[in-house]
Amino acid sequence: MKVTYLLVLALLAVFAATSLYGQDVFGRFGFSGNNLASHPEVLVTSIFLHGGLAHLLSNVLVLLFVGLAVEGELGKTKMLAVFFMGSFAGDFVSLLIYPAGVVSIGASGGIFALLGLGMIVRPTDLSVYPMVVPIPLAFLGIMYIFYNIYGFFTDASSNISYIAHFGGLVVGLAWGFAEKGVKRGMKIILISAAIMLLLAGALFLLVNGAV
Fold this sequence. Notes:
Helix content is 73%, strand content 2%. It is an all-alpha fold. The chain has one domain: Rhomboid-like (Rhomboid-like fold). Helix 5 (53-74) runs parallel beside helix 7 (108-121), helix 7 (108-121) packs parallel to helix 9 and helix 8 packs across helix 10 (182-210).
């Protein structure tokens, strides 16, 4: 069985189990500077906790597409290594921004790491989330990078840890560069970004021309 499916099942199972106990479980098993000092296992347990169904499903759907792409290209061991390294990196980077008592949960750091890697090693694999219509992973990665930058600078009051996303993304991109070379990786990123900007510009002109 694909390890991506096992991760998804684990996320779903933990969400179902923790739903019975309410948010009290987040304070003990979520990640924070204080929790890390007394309970180092929160580095792992926090990954599998989610604050609601929307949070869970958004992570699970992206994980399915990028996880399967990376696993298909590099195998189970590397896929899992990137996922957990990205999660850990996201947590440690968040310590630079958030007070020691602030708790964070979710698999986003690991998923952003897989996305960063996937857009380089399997750029043309398709995802139907979140656009409904299929889009290449390279485009999905660029879209999430722009979204994360925008959110980081404009949504300071949000409970989304954009900085943790960046931590995971850096891990994935670095691994992708190591696998395929910096030159090829940067070419994929720049060409994908240019195509998306051109498409956005064309759409803008069409919409405004039709009004």
